[in-house]
Amino acid sequence: MPLIQKILDKVSFKHAYYNFKASQPTEHLMHSLDHEELGKLLKYKDDTGHPQYKKYFNAQYWLRQNVRRALLLKLNKSRPLSVLDIGSGFGYFPYVAKFYGHDVIGIDLPGDILFNKTSEFLNIDRRDYTIEPMTPMPSYDKKFDFVTSFQVCFNGHIENELWQIKEWDFFLSDLFQNHMKEKGRVYLEMNWSPTIQGWLPQDVAQLFKDKYKAKFDGPARVMLFAPVTAQSEIGV
Ligand SMILES: C[S@@+](CC[C@H](N)C(=O)[O-])C[C@H]1O[C@@H](n2cnc3c(N)ncnc32)[C@H](O)[C@@H]1O
Q1: What is the dihedral sign for C-alpha 85, 86, 88, 92?
Q2: How far, CA to CA in Å, does 151 sit from each of 118, 139, 193, 221?
Q3: pTM for this one?
Q4: How far is CA 128 from its chain centroid?
Q5: Could you tell me the CA-to-CA distances from 188 to 42, 140, 199, 208, 224 in Å, in that order?
Q6: Number of the ligand 1 atom closest to the C-alpha atom of 87
Q7: With a 6 A CB cut-off, is 154 part of the ligand 1 pocket?
Q8: What is the pLDDT along the chain (236 residues), one digit of tens a residue?
């Protein structure tokens, strides 16, 4: 069953449609890169502690994945937004979002030489920060329209204890109360968690629906909105 879920997630019609639409902008973006200079950064692949990150040097593939993400989120049709991308990694999503006119800060773990170098190469505003459970995020001196996180890892999906309702509610409350504009949104693309053989614990998914008006796109992707407070409910 989990395997079928994973395959269905990858082969949906919507996924294929946006992948097709991503083809032309990807070609455009491929020409925007100095591939020789990018290739030189490959020498840092072993300094990152994650040898599998070599895969990100397939720029064509990863640009296309990230253009697809941007098109799905309608970033190509939106007014300029201030975006915070959590776990920005190599920097492809901020790069694509900037291409569509948005102002993006990426945050990721400190000390990753490869991702520091590639973010510098892509001219990404990348800040060091480790998301920790039950810990408020520092201020970035502005409020965001959109917070994104793709292939979420900060929720301890493999190595650490998987986040439950308490951790998610703290994290989202902090985001919406302290870091987002009034109509801000949060978009998460979850990673598969072997612990639960799924993407999210069921009660966390329910919290997302009940409190954060979640709109799921399959089991792994979800858009979240500011919770309705008692004050806004009575129109004060
Ligand atoms: C699977 S990678 C995904 C990278 C990128 N978002 C993408 O989809 O290509 C997960 C990223 O999250 C970062 N990360 C992991 N734990 C984190 C934490 N606690 N706080 C911030 N970033 C974290 C990793 O360093 C890595 O860059």
Answers
A1: negative
A2: 18, 23, 11, 10
A3: 0.93
A4: 16
A5: 29, 20, 11, 11, 8
A6: 12
A7: yes
A8: 566 666 666 667 888 899 999 999 999 999 999 999 999 999 888 776 677 888 999 999 999 999 999 999 999 999 999 999 999 999 999 999 999 999 999 999 999 999 999 999 999 999 999 999 999 999 999 999 999 999 999 998 776 689 999 999 999 999 999 999 999 999 999 999 998 999 999 999 999 999 999 999 999 999 999 997 755 544 44
